[in-house]
Amino acid sequence: MLESLRRWLIGPPLPTERLKHERLGRTQALAVLSSDALSSVAYATEEILLVLAAAGTGAFHLSWPISISISVLLIIVASSYYQTVHAYPQGGGAYLVTKDNLGAVPSLVAGAALLIDYVLTVAVSTSAGIAAITSAFPVLYPWRVLLAVAIVAFITTVNLRGVRESGRIFAVPTYFFIATMFLLIGMGLARWFFFGSPSAGAMTTWGAQAKNVGIFLLLRAFASGCTALTGVEAISDGVPIFKEPEADNAGKTLLTMVTLLVSMFLGITWLANHYHVVPGGERTVLAQLALQIFGHNVLFFLVQAGTALILFLAANTSFSDFPRLSMWMAIDRYMPRQMANLGDRLVYSNGIITLGTLASLLIIAFGASTHALIPLYAVGVFISFTLSQSSMVLRWYRKRGEVRGWYYRAFFNGLGAIATGIVLLIIASMKFIHGAWIVLLLIPIFVKLFLDIHAHYISLASQLSMKKELPPPVRNHTVVLPVSGLHRGVVKALHYAKELKGDLHVVMVDIDRASTEKQLERWQKWFPDLQIEVIPSPYRSVVDPLVEYIDKFVKEEGDFVTIVMPEFVPAKWWHHLLHNETAWALKVRLLFTKPDWRKRYRIITDVPFYLKK
Predict the structure, then answer these.
(1) What pTM was estimated for this model as a whole?
(2) 599 DSSP assignment
(3) Residue-level pLDDT at 92
(4) Which own/partner contact pairs does 202-207 have at CB distance under 8 Å and 24+ positions apart?
(5) What's phi and psi for 280, nearest 5 deg?
(6) For residue 69, what is the DSSP state?
(7) Phi, psi dihedrals of residue 432, rounded to the nearest 5°
(8) Bridge-partner residues for 480, per DSSP?
(9) Alpha-carbon distance 496 to 128, whole Å?
(10) What is the pLDDT of residue 419?
(11) Domains, the chain, ranges and CATH?
């Protein structure tokens, strides 16, 4: 039943040779990889205004120069990543670029920062999308957490169906959002130029509370608005999903994305200033603009629908990049190997499921509140920006004899590194006490975890290496079959144990003399030629006497003992709680006790007996 449901949700498996046909053209790739960046126009302006509100509505006019400076920064970063796309057509983004030029530990910092940011992207975008819906339908506000988790589950399922499938499904909503935003901006500009600004009374109220705006408030507003840059790196991470020529298609898509993003971001900020929108309350800035420009009609609801859809799709960008980054790190043995396995639909299913789970937990923990999650946002991505661009400067310098015009390339990447480094310091300092400290604390913890995983895999490879002295051959082979009674499951295990051709010992631990005598009589009746060895247990322990008994057969290296374990396999999952307690306890003791050389020669074999319903 579960397998049928799984097939219905994600579809039948695809053969490996279909991998090349699962790639995307520029139109679909823009929808899959740019939705995160494009969606930021739904909340970036609002975050700037929310900070400036501390100085009164008269400070809101400063959102325009702040937005222009952020747009310039965006163009610088995009120009830098345009070069990265062509220099690293295999993808991997900041992690691979930093590893190639600065080494392992800086690359792990970049990788940890991006992985955290991808999880935050899903949580923030989904929560913001739900905020757009509750702005149109306030009655849904109490259900925002449940709705957000349901949306994450839906996006996870769609991505498990494959890259082409997600591109096909998400292309229409992305272009619908772009259309609604340009319709809103176009109508807003036309209405303002032809009919003028809102009434003088509204303007007076809007600017009446102006106070002196300090540099720290401006920096905080700038830091909050820099969320507009999140997602810019996504295309450089996902170059391999483009159709050939990959780098060329990725570069053109990046330029298209930046043009759209800058246009919409500046347009929304200009409208918010000239229509005197005040952030806060149940309606977002975009919702208030749509209400003023279109009125409470179908166009208002279309803007809200488009905004909600693109915010949900912004999460989809992370579902493309998180699994791919996890794959690269798993190949380098810094993450579990399972992250590098392609699933049935030629996507990295383990990474997709991991991302969906972590994002859902974050949404629940923060109550699907965009404003509570935003302070954690953007720190990680600017760390990766700075490391990536610094790495590219070093790359061009090293290849100065091979690449024509290397100094132009180094200049653009250097400009990007300086700009993003300065912004990183601003964001980290301005948002530190508001939650950025959590991300800054998590990054070194993750780096330590990656290094521990890597150390484990290196140790494993060393221990399994054929270059070392090979294990000794089998000198003696003893087969131990622990039994507590006589039934068909035990008989099956007994037949199997006899076929192992070792020195067979059927043993029973005596914890109740009367019960033991009764069981011995049953064994004598059914198997009169079989000798049952009884192990005394004055303290009623089963596991300790068995382990002591087993270890006495391992006297030297090469003395193997196979422990044959009869086990029930119930038809229902909860039936497992009713069986096999002793078997599990014995296996845990044999496998995970403090290792000595004897442990290497214990072989545990399960003999399952399948129960019917």
Answers:
(1) 0.74
(2) G
(3) 57
(4) 202/276, 203/276, 205/57, 206/57, 206/58, 206/60, 206/276, 206/278, 207/57, 207/58, 207/60, 207/61
(5) 115, 170
(6) H
(7) -55, -55
(8) 505, 563
(9) 60
(10) 82
(11) 2-457 (1.20.1740.10), 476-610 (3.40.50)
